[in-house]
Design a protein that fits this description.
The chain is mostly helical. It has one domain. The protein is 77% helix and 0% strand. Helix 18 runs antiparallel to helix 20 (426-449). It is globular and about 80 Å long.
């Protein structure tokens, strides 16, 4: 057996081994790095891996630490946690519930709209699902909503932060695709490729996000029209109607201004994503001050939460770097290139297979685990075959929405299960998200058929 074939076999086994260790319950970063080191040792003993390849790790880690784009991640997380701790998210849910509650399905519509607004201003999935579960789920149950519909719409709306800008997933993916695309284009002989930025990916995700939100709203309206018993109205009291206009003005307008400040500064070319993230973080503090809820206890709590989440994500990134080096140097990338390149349908056929693999991995892995493992392996091949990097990035973002909602390890399901009343079973939650997973697959199919949905708006805004 040649060293090349041995390396390819070990690379394939390493991929399976990483999935297996994650299923056993080992921490993600240690599973990625530890399993990779074990297979690197096996490859060295069998003559299929040179340990000197690990010399590239130091420069890669320094690159992570000095990457200005990735600074946006803790800033956006800080903004989201600050808005959640200051109760602004709760006020949005209560106020929008009053606005739409008098209509059949009104509470469900309000949850979707608030979920979209929180996604566009925070991007923190866990906090959004928990907040909506604590505030909206009891109100929906009192109104007589079908538990499956109520839990499904909360989980689906809470996960919009995965694709709606400013998404932390899009930040990492944009940074990864920028480097991979530059390398692929240089290998093709194009030494002046059109650069891909996180800002491009943010703008590219706007239309697909709107389509996904629109599908959720249409589904909720369809339920209200054809099955009104599953989502009855909850009319506001006379006292609530008196203050409704003022509540909408004071509760709805400030978060909208924050969204405009963050995304508008990017679309207008005024600020980079990192600079807009700092605007968002300061804006969240200003909103909290305006509500007279800011104190050092909240600041300390928000800072600790931000540091915890950021550290978790970046440690996974460090472990994924080890996996990427070992997999590539043992010939795994050549194996993937040969497999995807031999599929019928060219780049579309290869894209369908990659999306299907990611969808299945979403049943057992977290979003960041999937992108840190799969993107470095598959993106070079897909881009070399002619896939547009923006189309690929947005496709992956929409696909990874499902990883938060598919049993058995969908994190949104766990978040909601932790705050749901005892009368709502885990089975109700699992069955409730099924229609919304199907809607996400439909949105993915639409985007697959019309790549311009991801590429047209960045071309208009940035002149790509």
């Amino acid at each position: 057996m040649t060293a090349t074939l041995t390396g390819e076999i070990l690379a394939l086994l390493m991929f399976v081994g990483v999935i297996g260790t994650l299923l056993i319950g080992f921490p993600v970063s240690f599973s990625l790095a530890g399993t990779s080191l074990l297979f690197a040792l096996a490859g060295w003993l069998l003559g299929a891996f040179d340990p000197s390849n690990f010399g590239a790790l130091a420069s890669r880690y320094v690159g992570f630490m000095t990457n200005e784009v990735l600074v946006a991640v803790p800033l956006f997380i800080f903004m989201g946690v600050m808005l959640e701790r200051s109760k602004i998210a709760e006020e949005l849910l209560v106020t929008m519930g009053k606005v739409f509650g008098q209509l059949p399905g009104g509470l469900g519509l309000s949850v979707i709209i608030v979920g979209a607004m929180l996604a566009a201003s925070t991007g923190v999935v866990g906090a959004t699902v928990v907040t909506m579960g604590l505030i909206s789920l009891p109100a929906m149950m009192r109104a007589g909503y079908d538990p499956r519909l109520a839990t499904g719409v909360i989980c689906a709306s809470g996960t919009l932060g995965q694709i709606v800008p400013p998404s932390t997933v899009l930040i990492f993916m944009g940074d990864m695709l920028a480097g991979i695309n530059a390398q692929v284009q240089m290998e093709k002989g194009n030494f002046a490729p059109t650069p891909v930025s996180v800002g491009d990916l943010f703008i590219g995700a706007v239309l697909p996000s709107a389509i996904l939100i629109g599908l959720y709203l249409l589904y909720m309206i369809g339920k209200a029209v054809f099955q009104p018993r599953t989502c009855p109205p909850t009319p506001a009291t006379a006292e609530e109607r008196k203050t409704l206009g003022r509540d909408v003005l004071t509760v709805l307008v400030p978060p909208l201004l924050l969204i405009v400040a963050v995304l508008g500064s990017i679309m207008g070319g005024i600020a980079t994503p990192t600079e807009s993230a700092s605007v968002g973080a300061i804006g969240a503090i200003v909103l909290t001050l305006a509500k007279r809820r800011f104190d050092f206890a909240i600041l300390r709590d928000v800072t600790i939460s931000t540091a915890t989440v950021t550290s978790m994500v970046f440690v996974i990134l460090l472990g994924a770097a080890v996996f990427s080096i070992v997999f590539r140097m043992m010939g795994g990338d050549a194996l993937v290139h040969e497999f995807l390149g031999g599929l019928p349908g060219g780049v579309v056929g290869a894209m369908i297979v990659v999306m299907a693999v990611m969808f299945v991995l979403g049943f057992i892995l977290d979003t960041f685990e999937i992108i840190f493992i799969v993107i470095p392996i598959t993106a070079p091949v897909l881009l070399a075959m002619g896939a547009d990097p923006l189309w690929l990035g947005v496709m992956v973002g929409v696909n990874l929405q499902t990883s938060f909602m598919t049993p058995p390890f969908g994190f949104s399901l766990f978040y909601l299960r932790g705050v749901a009343p005892a009368g709502i079973s885990t089975g109700d939650i699992y069955r409730g998200v099924a229609p919304f997973v199907l809607l996400q697959v439909i949105a993915l199919g639409v985007l697959m058929s019309y790549p311009a949905l991801a590429t047209w708006l960045p071309a208009v805004v940035f002149g790509r």
